[in-house]
Design brief:
It is a single chain. The chain has 23 helices and no strands. By secondary structure, the chain is mainly alpha-helical. Helix 9 crosses helix 17, helix 17 crosses helix 18 and helix 19 runs antiparallel to helix 20. The longest helix has 52 residues. The radius of gyration is 23 Å and the shape is globular.
Length: 559
């Protein structure tokens, strides 16, 4: 329905022509992605070239690439819709999205100093062993797989709507085609190809959102106060629009306030430690560069969120909350609906150009994040499982590891495409809730303890990774997200005894508690080498510490 409403106007350019331009924009983005990855792919079969692009990118490019990894289609499309429909609660969600990067800023330096390619490298620095590697790799793959389904579904739904293809079959065809093409591009291009995609995506998204936000402000005489007044008058919720509580009212089956807290915790703590975002930090030259990249990404993401909030308010002011809810109940059509409303509709000449540009930015957003997720999953398979856990390669045979990683990317993508194919008729929100909760309840406690607690042991690490993940999966199975209500995964069954959608308020403390309990009941682990020097001097005065850049460089040159 969204597509037909957006493309209804037919002044100088027909709606069919606009859809054709959108299709051409989508194909151009895909072809450009494939070409960039083929052109920039690693020339040699080396782990450092494939996984981290030899760490030669400048801080500005790393910042744009990190922002590209972090900003998903849910950030661009979903936040605008949430602000348009939920007002104050939407602003809070946008603030939480930015706060996650502040959390990442505290972790960036120590994480880069102790890691090489993957999260498992950071954990193995604390407790070397096959069990730690396998557990960390499995949790990483699980989070990546769930988030891959979310992103593939998003690009399929948005692309199908923009092309006027409302059937599930068309959405499935787009998801399969997109997944296959991006998998091939990532398997060939590695980190350098993914960096090119993410950098270009950040630039295109900023350009598109700037134009839409500028057009909105121009309509209201460049007065933010006039825009807010109009949003307050036509949002459909009255005075409640600028007060907290609308998001909670949209889910009457949940306990009051609990889901809102769970959502914020999942965003702030889960998004900060998503595996594909953390792997981007390993592509920086050292800890100082990693922190600088996060600071730059904060500026970029802050600008994206500011424009997105403005567009959400503009949707409430120009389109109206009632019309948006009728066309797009979840609010995901807010960005495109507002873009189509500006400049005389998408059928007019200027409106068509703006509409196609924003549509292209949405495509690029999903494709770039999919590339980062696929690369991270391939590293977990090739580097963590094949090389270290199975010990099938030695330091001189890296070509086999990279070939395994590439086939691993194909395997993970095949599973993700299959799940997306089946899940397009389901509630995609479930996959997002679970992915963020898994990261916040398992990976975050393990990272915090590994980087900052000298008494953290191998048992504590395993209990945190496995126990935190199990807590999320078990508890989530008994929530309305899975059964009990029409929008559930299993709407015809009801075994939901937890009246919440997110279990993060329970699972995150459980993950930290398991790590502490496992450590105080287990023997301390003390690996040798540079990692031990860094860890043992972490609490010493600055002038007596080992230099992280020196230690990190030394570790990167080892086999």
């Amino acid at each position: 329905m969204t597509a037909y409403v957006l493309l209804a106007a037919e002044p100088s350019v027909s709606a069919g022509d606009t859809r054709s331009a959108v299709l051409i924009g989508f194909l151009l983005v895909v072809v450009a992605a494939l070409f960039a990855c083929l052109l920039l792919g690693p020339q040699r079969e080396e782990a450092e070239s494939f996984y981290v692009g030899r760490r030669r990118d400048k801080p500005l490019r790393n910042s744009l690439a990190l922002a590209g990894d972090y900003v998903s289609s849910a950030t661009v499309v979903g936040t605008a819709g949430t602000v348009a429909l939920m007002g104050f609660d939407g602003l809070f969600v946008a603030g939480s999205t930015l706060a996650a990067l502040v959390v990442l800023l505290f972790l960036a330096g120590p994480l880069r100093a102790r890691g090489r390619f993957t999260l498992a490298d950071v954990f193995a620095d604390r407790a070397p062993g096959t069990a730690v590697r396998v557990t960390a790799a499995v949790v990483t793959l699980l989070v990546c797989l769930l988030y891959l389904v979310v992103q593939l579904s998003a690009v399929a739904l948005v692309t199908a709507q923009l092309l006027g293809l409302e059937t599930v079959g068309a959405q499935r065809a787009i998801a399969v085609m997109t997944g296959v093409l991006i998998t091939c591009a990532t398997a060939v291009g590695g980190m350098r190809g993914a960096t090119a995609l993410q950098t270009a995506k950040s630039v295109v998204v900023l350009m598109a959102l700037t134009l839409v936000a500028g057009a909105l402000l121009a309509r209201f005489g460049w007065s933010p106060a006039a825009l807010l007044d109009a949003a307050g008058a036509t949002n459909g919720a009255g005075r409640a629009y600028f007060r907290p509580g609308l998001l909670q009212r949209s889910n009457p089956s949940a306990s009051w306030g609990f889901d809102f807290v769970g959502l914020q915790l999942s965003i702030v703590l889960g998004a900060a430690v998503m595996p594909h975002v953390l792997m981007r930090l390993h592509a920086t030259p050292g800890p100082v560069a990693a922190r600088r990249s996060v600071r730059g990404a904060l500026v970029v993401v802050g600008a994206v969120l500011a424009f997105t909030v403005l567009i959400g308010l503009g949707t409430a002011a120009t389109v109206g909350g009632a019309k948006l809810a009728a066309v797009s109940p979840g609010g995901t059509g807010a960005l495109m609906l507002t873009t189509g409303t500006l400049a005389g509709g998408p059928g007019s000449g200027p409106g068509a150009v703006l509409f196609v540009l924003v549509a292209t930015a949405v495509f690029a957003t999903s494709l770039a994040v999919i590339a980062g997720i696929t690369l991270t999953a391939s590293a977990a398979i090739g580097h963590d499982l094949y090389r270290h856990a199975l010990r099938r390669t030695d330091g001189q045979d890296r070509g086999v590891e990279i070939r395994t990683a590439r086939w691993g990317a194909v395997a993970v993508s095949a599973v993700g495409i299959t799940l997306t194919y089946a899940a397009l008729a389901w509630n995609m929100q479930m996959f997002s809730w679970v992915a963020l909760a898994l990261a916040a309840s398992s990976l975050l406690p393990a990272l915090v303890y590994s980087l900052f607690w000298v008494r953290f042991t191998e048992r504590g690490l395993l209990w945190t990774l496995a126990g935190g993940a199990a807590c999320v999966l078990v508890l989530q199975a008994f929530t309305p997200v899975v059964s009990g209500i029409p929008s559930s995964l299993l709407p015809h069954h009801d075994f939901a005894w937890l009246p919440v959608q997110s279990v993060a308020p329970v699972s995150i403390p459980a993950g930290f508690a398991l790590g502490w309990l496992g450590s105080v009941t287990g023997r301390p682990s003390r690996p040798g080498g540079d990692a031990a020097v860094l860890r043992d001097t972490a609490l010493l005065p600055r002038h007596r510490r080992a230099t992280p850049e020196t230690a990190g460089t030394a570790r990167d040159t080892q086999g």
